[in-house]
Write a structure and sequence with these properties.
Layout: H1 2-13, H2 33-39, H3 72-83, H4 95-98, E1 113-114, E2 117-118, H5 146-151, H6 171-179, H7 182-192, H8 199-212, H9 219-224, H10 239-249, E3 252-254, E4 260-263, E5 271-272, E6 277-278, H11 329-337, H12 365-376, H13 382-385
Domain Cytochrome c: 73-182, 239-379
Organism: Flavobacterium cheniae
GO molecular function: cytochrome-c peroxidase activity; electron transfer activity; heme binding; metal ion binding
Length: 394
């Protein structure tokens, strides 16, 4: 009602702004009629959501923003782009079609649906993508950074269809398309000071929005805030959760046959606390199949953060690994329990082959259940429902 009253007064005055004194200098009040018509109160450019100054725990020290720092304006534009199906050639697919908020920005399908088929790898969760030493993106790290990654699905024939090949429209055609949409003229001017739309601006805004998606309200975070370091028992953990944490963090001790005789599971060797991101030097983890189940694909060496693998109710946020072949935490731990040296896999991480043989962790049911209990402490709740990461078109 307040906004409607202001607009009515402006119309009565016949001016962008009005004053009782005709000698006053008039201050232009920006208006965004296309944004307001499309989004209503879900995108309020006069009262932006907090993306730039979110609370980050002091023990989180990694940040791969690389000069593209999050701004409230940029992330707001990125949110619109992320959810807009206009970014696909047939107006049916958005980034959010494969990265759904209710599943920690992943997909419950093994392969996500695109405009011309399905994706070649399972859609990776986007939780805490900013807080990682690894700056490359996609499972096989083919994107040098998040900015580059953001428009690659748009330019993919199977995913969003602006490839410029196989009869597809080109990315330049997408730019023309967006230029004809009123709310983009207003949003790009609001963020960048000009209506000009470029791929670099799209990449910057999308990357800011994705990096803003963070999850630090888990049971783990509550415990870590009270502890001196990760190795210390957390006062809010159960005995089982603390046991699982120790097993996760502690390296295993192997005999000459690659069988664990003592120690932990060594998960933190690749998935490093407290961010639980992937070590950039990590190689293949032994899963070398393709999503279709045939062929060898050994180049997949990246992984998302282990945060929010599951919801707090214990249900998974979709299948795991680039093939989606693993659907439970028990199966994920079991995979590392016995590593097979598959023919053709010349990219297997040496940390999984002590003494040149595939590791055998010799796990007990008690250990597996303890690690599962710990992994569940890494899940928060806010990321699933916070409106600043939700669909503005709803």
């Amino acid at each position: 009602m307040k906004n409607q009253l202001i607009l009515s007064l402006l119309a009565i005055c016949g001016l962008t702004s009005c004053s009782n004194n005709s000698d006053d200098n008039y201050e232009e009040i920006p208006s965004y009629p296309f944004v307001e018509a499309e989004f209503g109160s879900t995108v309020d450019l006069g009262n932006l959501a907090n993306y730039a100054n979110q609370t980050v725990p002091a023990y989180i020290i990694k940040d791969n923003s690389q000069g593209n720092l999050i701004t409230d304006k940029g992330a707001t534009l990125g949110r619109v782009l992320f959810y807009d199906k206009n970014l696909s050639s047939n107006n049916t697919i958005s980034c959010a079609s494969c990265h759904k908020q209710e599943f920690a920005f992943s997909d419950t399908n093994v392969a996500s649906t695109g405009v011309n088929g399905t994706t070649g790898r399972h859609s990776m969760r986007l939780i805490n993508s900013r807080f990682a030493s690894e700056t490359k993106f996609f499972w096989n790290e083919r994107a040098l950074n998040l900015e580059t990654q953001t428009t690659m699905p748009i330019k993919d024939h199977g995913e969003m269809g602006f490839s410029g090949e196989n009869g597809d429209l080109s990315f330049d055609d997408l730019i023309t398309k967006l230029n004809a949409i009123g709310y983009y003229k207003e949003l790009f001017k609001f963020v960048y000071g000009t209506e000009e739309i470029t791929e670099a601006k799209i990449q910057s805004a999308l990357a800011q929005f994705i990096r803003s998606i963070q999850s630090f309200d888990s049971k783990y975070d509550a415990g870590r805030a009270l502890a001196t370091n990760d190795g210390q028992p957390f006062s809010n953990f159960t005995a089982q959760e603390n046991q699982g944490k120790n097993l996760f963090l502690s390296p295993p001790v192997f005999n000459t046959n690659g069988v664990r005789t003592s120690g932990g599971l060594g998960c933190a060797g690749c998935h490093r606390a407290p961010e639980f991101d992937i070590d950039p030097n990590t190689l293949n983890n032994g899963i070398i199949g393709t999503i279709a189940g045939t062929g060898i694909d050994t180049g997949n060496t990246r992984a998302p953060s282990l945060r929010d693998l599951v919801r707090t109710d214990g249900t998974t946020n979709g299948p795991m690994m680039h093939t989606g072949v693993i659907t439970t935490l028990q199966a994920a731990i079991g995979h590392y329990g016995t590593i097979n040296l598959a023919p053709g896999n010349n990219n297997l991480d040496p940390r999984l082959t002590p003494g040149g043989v595939g590791q055998q962790l010799n796990l007990t049911a008690t250990e597996v259940n303890a690690v599962i209990a710990f992994l569940r402490t890494l899940s928060g709740t806010d990321v699933y429902t916070n409106t600043k990461w939700s669909n503005p078109f709803n």
